[in-house]
Amino acid sequence: MSLSTETTRCDLCVVGGGMSGVCAAIAAARRGLKVVLMQERPMLGGNASSEIRMWICGCGGSNNRETGILEELQLESLYRNPYKLYPVWDGLIYGKVIAEPNITLMLNCSCCKADMDGDKIKAVYGWQMTTQTWQKVEADYFADCSGDSILALLTGAEFRFGRESKYEFDEEISVTEPDSKTMGNSCLIQARKLDHEVTFRAPSFATKLTKEDVANRRPNLESSSENFWYLELGGDRNTIKDAETIRDELVALAYGMWDYIKNSGEFDAACWQLDFIGFLPGKRESRRLIGDHIMTQKEISADTFFPDTVAYGGWPLDDHEPGGFWFRGHPNTNGYTPKPYKIPLSVLYSKNIENLWFAGRNISMTHAAMSSSRVMATCALLGQAVGESCAVASKYKLTPRQTRKLHISEIQQNLMESDCFLPGFVREVSPICKTAKLSSKPKNIENLENLRNGIDRDHRIYEGSQGVHIEKGCSVKYTLANPTEVSKVRIVFDSDLDRNTLPGDLCERQHTMRANVNTNSPVMTMPKTLIKSYKLTAQLENGDETVLIEDKENIKRLIKINVSKKVKQLTLTLLSDWSESGAYFDGKMNLFSFDFN
């Protein structure tokens, strides 16, 4: 009896359901594309999921937090998941994907075959182990967000593996001879502090560690930033081919580390209990696909301007020693990067496969450059950039390369319209909004024109504050010269990008999830600056007033309201934010944008 094959036709097939794949799929689906998201695991999130539990890290520096779809997810997590529980987080990502009617989600489905027509992918096949069925997906475009670049192997897409010599791209690094070494994998530990003592007996396979072994990897359970990332191995081997062997060694090392913490007598760990050890390694590096451009460390360090910028980074050049845990020196080096630096579209599609996009740690960069871009907040931006770019490509029926050359401005405007920050670029505001009369109640609100200047955050690259402070219960109004068809209203609230209004220390405030759970771990809150309740009304052509939206428990930074009516006036009234007083800034609330088209 032969195995069955089910065929699905779509516009875009995204392979890989980590943060980059999730954001790519959602972005494309929201632009109207039919999307298949094929994920080999039973859950979404990749390194951020409960199977691995790595933090979502990104660009440091004031007001540099990544927004767009990622901020939407993280704000919802603060609201629905104040205790930072992984089962809630897993369900949140899953719920966000299945809520999109244009996405077909295929979990437990491992991509392992492709049909080609010359240099174009016609279909990919995934083995779905739960249904014991081959899932064939035919699409116009494909996006490899798998991390390991499985489509490179299946389609012949050009890729690199390992470290370049410093001389090949004139990079400021220490590697003088190219090699196949990479950064390694980690199986993470999480612990929980109890109010009573608990014991631990290590399994027989646990690695026996000594004081010398942990000399440069000494844990600190009381610190909120302790997540055992340095339990790392495999960079001196092939992180794909040797994955099973590396996993076995990592699991043994993780249990061995916990055994040492609990039973060596060197730690005050009597009340600490083992809460989690990952059996699925978190991977930092493997294949990197080759695009029209290969971005280098030197371009990052120089903050090179790219006309086709679609995302940004800002994590340090965080290069890990291939020997991992057994390397006796410091486990990593941290090189300076500008915060933020720009990332071009030309590193997000294949040089030789005409309908292949990619996003995540596998983009077209040198080893040294990807040591910064590989972190998940950056990868989420790259995924959203691919989703938006593919939507434009599909609109004009062009290849990724043609779309970059002919329609990069439209891609950039769509990204900024979806609340993605592109340093060096400003969002265009519609002519009908710019010519409407903008007023407020009370009349003395300063900098009111900021609401339609196309800038949606405070940042050092702009002059002065970009937000508008509005007293609780007051409003801003657009009056049009003549009744005019308005399709959509767009609002951006202040979601406290630096997370200064959240409880806990810096690590707790900045990360959506936590590593170890202490007895005093804070219960998270919504950012106090975010608008909680507001009302948007319109005066129609006939003079009638209608409420377009009235939200008493808003948790979003970006608000888009479909109108599709002829209007004479639009009035936005801010009623409260998430602070206890209902207005955080000395009795006022902060609003970044209120415009329409």
What does this structure look like?
This protein is an alpha+beta fold and 597 residues long. It has a domain at 431-494 and 529-596: Jelly Rolls (Sandwich). 21% of the residues lie in helices and 28% in strands. It has helices at 19-30, 69-80, 86-98, 150-155, 243-263, 297-301, 367-373, 376-396, 400-417, 431-435, 506-510; strands spanning 5-15, 35-38, 103-106, 109-117, 120-128, 133-144, 159-161, 185-186, 189-193, 232-233, 272-277, 282-283, 287-289, 309-313, 317-320, 332-335, 341-344, 356-358, 437-441, 468-471, 475-493, 531-540, 545-551, 558-577, 588-596. The strands form seven sheets. Strands 1, 2, 3, 4, 5, 6 and 18 form a seven-stranded mixed β-sheet that branches. Strands 19, 20, 21, 22, 23, 24 and 25 form a seven-stranded antiparallel β-sheet that branches. Strands 10-8-12 form a three-stranded antiparallel β-sheet, covered by helices on one side. The longest helix is centred in the middle third of the chain and has 21 residues, at 243-263. The model has no long low-confidence stretch (mean pLDDT 97).
What is the topological layout?
Elements (H helix, E strand, L loop, with lengths): L4 E11 L3 H12 L4 E4 L30 H12 L5 H13 L4 E4 L2 E9 L2 E9 L4 E12 L5 H6 L3 E3 L23 E2 L2 E5 L38 E2 L9 H21 L8 E6 L4 E2 L3 E3 L7 H5 L7 E5 L3 E4 L11 E4 L5 E4 L11 E3 L8 H7 L2 H21 L3 H18 L13 H5 L1 E5 L26 E4 L3 E19 L12 H5 L20 E10 L4 E7 L6 E20 L10 E9 L1
Parallel strand pairs: 1-2, 1-6, 2-3, 6-18
Antiparallel strand pairs: 4-5, 5-6, 7-13, 8-10, 8-12, 9-11, 14-17, 15-16, 19-21, 20-25, 21-24, 21-25, 22-23, 22-24
